[in-house]
Amino acid sequence: ILSHEIHMTKPDPKVFEYALKKAGCKPEEILFIDDGFNNVRSARVLGINSIRFIGLDNLVEEIQKLDIKIG
Fold this sequence. Notes:
Layout: H1 3-6, H2 13-23, E1 31-34, H3 37-45, E2 49-52, H4 56-66
Parallel strand pairs: 1-2
């Protein structure tokens, strides 16, 4: 999704709503990873699994907490 094509940018919740619709997924089926606090908070409000990226070790730990299978 390119913000200039949809005329919206994060952390606007409409961006995440658009992404969910485009992907045909429910919020709980998505994992959003971003380094921006406000972006992560906005996605979480919609029920999207969200992780704030602050480093690789933290990312692995946060994914394990969510018990998400990758691959």
